[in-house]
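Final report, closing paragraph on structural work. Over the funding period we assembled a curated collection of sequence-structure pairs, and we close with a single example.
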Amino acid sequence: MLLALPLAVAVWAFGGFAAKRERSNADQELVRNLNSSGSVYDGLFRDARRNANTLARSRRVARAFTRNDTRTLRAIETAHPWIVLVPGKLGGLHGREPLAGFEVVGRRGTIGRVFVVPRFDQDLVGLISDRAGLPSDRLGFLLGSRLVRENGVGRVGAPPEFLRPTDLRMGAVEYRAVAQSLVPPRDAPALITLRKRSEIAAAANDVRWRVIGIGLGLIGAILVTAYAVAPAIARGRLSRQQRDQAERVLASLGDGVFVVDRDGVVRLWNQAAETITGLRAADVRGRRAEDAIPGWTTISTFVPVADRPGEGDGGSSSETVPVDVAGRELWLSIVAVALDDDTVYAFRDATYARRLENLRSDFVTTISHELRTPLASLHGAAMTLREHELPAQTQDDLLEMIAEQSNRLANLVEEILVVGQLDSGSLHVVADTFEPEELVRGVVTVARSRVGEETTIEVGTNSVLPQVHGDAERTRQVLLNLLDNAIKYSPSGGRIEVELAAVEDRLRFSVHDQGLGIPVGEQERIFDKFYRLDPDQRRGIGGTGLGLYICRELVRSMHGRIWVESEPGQGTTFAFELPAEPVPAAA
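Its predicted structure, as stored:
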């Protein structure tokens, strides 16, 4: 019994912790569902806004307003469900609040307005659910106290807090819900995701009892083993074994666990905690937490402690906090449970997950920005060609712009594909030899076609150049990227030089420009993925931040090296070396 009691308490505590984590996972799922359905709604709204803007500039709509052709106006509204057409200079809506509006201007001024008025009905709930891949009963619109779902309309009690999982009652059924206002006013229509609390509680209880069942089975096995192999061990020895067994159970967990007593002294520091933080148990146990654990002030301040073990709706919840360990920043997701006079803390390393989330956010932001300009240009050119009769030269100019922007999109997609292949290790690099001078002159010819008269590109070579060992196509890709950067970061033009030089058993490719230059503190970071010198585009220089990362990885895959030399305002030199055949000695 002495062995079983502490283990049973620990098992019960971790059963409650597992149930708490299951409830937390349910809340996170609701937030993810809200984000995905919100993205679908935003896409539908953007499409409706673009349609409204296009209709406001349409000759057909202007003609219908001028002639007061209500039949045509109603036909247009039927074809575009979110669009409402109102004639007159001061036209407005009765009983409905538009989310966007555009004026239709005739010869004598405003002749009507095109409004975007979403219909927050069951059909829209079903459409968003299908596109977001959600069950139809977990999504709805909150219109005051009315909850519109695909399977019906009901009334709720107190509305939930926005962007925070809260409890909601509709009739006799309780739900867990997360809502987000679709427009700035707090009482405006809101998108809501919800799930029955009974379902969440059932899943949490199932997890809790599974953990407790496994723990009790382990306790039974420990007791049987203890009484079978050591029936004559004294009480003191048995007590020590019980403690050791409990620590081994905690050591086998993947989460870090430590115990702090009522005096603030660390009494337990398991192996997972040692692995995650790099702090040895011998350096932590027996010391005050504020002295032994970096960031303890932050942990004790922001991590709430449950009142009782396994209390599902108590004050315990997981909090992610930063901890600085020997100059290394860790993000730990921590939960705390009160146990007699001690407090049990369990945590996991969330650093990698946070880094992935930051990379994902950077990637989405960068790619969205880079896609916006060519897509807007393509859309504008296509609509102009479609709706206007233009001179042949103007049509040729628009078609040329469409070709250029399409090529820009293709290059962006190619960069993303290459990065994916580099990250997965599936990029194919040919091991062959090639003539470097012919390759360089071909690349320079292509680059010259992209610059104006204010920029010149010259090639400089030694009299004798060796053949290079590597992939000619990948080398061309690296050189083109470096030349594009030289052109892009030389807004005032100038001379760009491409040089080839044999250096022992390697061949060096150099690209030198007279452009803006790179600050010294940035030169070590420019080869990192998604890193850009001008992230806010204050100089009007775009880019995904992938080009130099691709160059570095391609050069490394061919057993070469790449570097940069630059001074702000004095230009930049990018150079890379690849293995080459020995240069024949001069006769």
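Residues 9 and 456 are 78 Å apart (CA to CA). Residues 4-56 form the longest helix (53 residues). We thank the funder for supporting this effort.
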